Amino acid sequence: LSADATSPGAALGGPVACVSKVELRVACKALLDRDTLNKSDPCVILMVQNQGQWTELDRTEVIKSNLHPVFAKVFTLDYYFEEVQKLRFEVYDIHGTHSIGARDDDFLVITLMVLSTCHTTGCLPAENKIFSLVHAEEISGNNGYVELFFCAKKLDDKDLFSKSDPFLEIYRINDDGTEQLVHRTEVIKNNLNPVWEPFKVSLISLCSCDEDRKLKCLVWDSDSRGKHDFIGEFYATFREMQKIGGGSKVTWDCMNPKYKLKKKNYKNSGVVILSDLKLHRVYSFLDYIMGGCQIHFTVAIDFTASNGDPRNSCSLHYINPYQPNEYLKALIAVGEICQDYDSDKRFSALGFGARIPPNYEVSHDFAINFNPEDDECEEIQGVVEAYQNCLPKIQLYGPTNVSPIISRIAKLSAGEETIKDASRYHILLILTDGVVTDMADTREAIVRASYQPLSIIIVGVGNADFTDMQILDGDDGVLRSPKGEPVLRDIVQFVPFRDFKTVSIAFLPFLILYLHPSTFPSSFYTSIPPPSLPHSIPPSLHLPFLILYLHPSTFPTSLYSKIH
């Protein structure tokens, strides 16, 4: 799925329509040797350009005394199809344990490139011949990962006055015969029976999701000067690794081919053992929808006086007989998408900030159909009708308090027995014309709600300054309660409606999904399998179905991360 030059992402200056995760691996050759007695100790810093400024994204490990390093560190980036994403790789010879890039470190080389070139070619020799290879690989949206626990016994002793300092390297053998470093363990000092720290790796990285793909595993005795001594090697597959279970372990003889040829009674240079394996399935949004997970949609509408008198054509709530106002446009755009994932097509419709009958007291949580026992409306058209019928009966007032409604929906989602089977997920759409008044209470309510199967979409209507609303969005940092408690997960997405006046309103829900990939259920149900009931895909999904199918990571896996 790609977008043209007039896509809403390009028009808004935000993320473009087509986005995927890309892994970058880096290797160098023929680096400059800045050290007198030893070789350089290189480290690569990855810089990304954002609004003309270069900022550090991440950095590799430091490899001691090596002018041809192959780094184990994997850089993970979002790849946007239409954007020119400039990358800068800076290589330093590191001295000591202080901050990399400080005065004492020697600058070796800098390389500039564009991510799209790297992504489309896979392996990219950089312009500077010193920088040998940048390998790019797209990560599948429904990708799982595995946690591996390795140890070894009776490894050969390569040191004269002490024992070997072993580490393990795992390489994936590609279809063209090339070898790609997957993981390098830490060094275990002075130990012939090392137990390495467990590590996690995606199945795409490990074996390209091919259980029978060969993996080449090498065991080395680490040398501080970079001249590591070869202990032995073995070949494995992910299928072999999965034979572990029931207390049994998977073992391989660590073989040194030279010793095998020269020594008549040579058996091995030790044994490498896979003591445990934990496979984690990452479910996609489509898995949950096809399994029967229902999305319950609630809309909350701002009826504060700042919207203007609904009888005045300048009011944001003015009912124009010829075209819908901005509240209705946003409601219909998002609601018509969400209703395809709700089997009964009934939606809760609430209001806040108005004086309501019969006593005309201010309420920040009322049913716009004035039925507190049943606030649901039939389909989006029912919500539209309830909204139009409500306006003449209420008095717009204030302030703009949204925490009561957030707390109400969070309590509702917490009270349901749906977390166990991932059968329902809640979406709260808040339509407002200004910055919320109860910011502290709203932050507290969002932190509490982040523990529930709930996501919140806030659409800013009108021309107010919504700068402070970015705090709730969490894009500039982790949202915290007034007491400093962080959200469990990012559940809020704020979108100014005015940004869609220059593009089709149909792209509003489209961009909400892409601007905030953790907004929906897959961000909550990370380890809970989808319901087992097979459901058919509604024929009316059109664009949203394509979005979810092509980018299944867009939705429900981050909240239910600890439920099996």
From TrEMBL:
Entries under Gene3D superfamilies matching the protein: C2 domain, von Willebrand factor, type A domain
Domain C2: 1-124, 125-253
A GO BP annotation: cellular response to calcium ion
Keywords for the protein's UniProt record, in alphabetical order: Repeat
Keyword tRNA processing: no
Pfam families: C2, Copine
Annotated GO CC locations: plasma membrane
Keyword Repeat recorded: yes
InterPro entries, A to Z: C2_dom, C2_domain_sf, C2B_Copine, Copine, Copine_C, VWF_A, vWFA_dom_sf
MF-aspect GO terms: calcium-dependent phospholipid binding
Domain VWFA: 296-495
Similarity section: Belongs to the copine family.
Name under which the protein is recorded: Copine VII
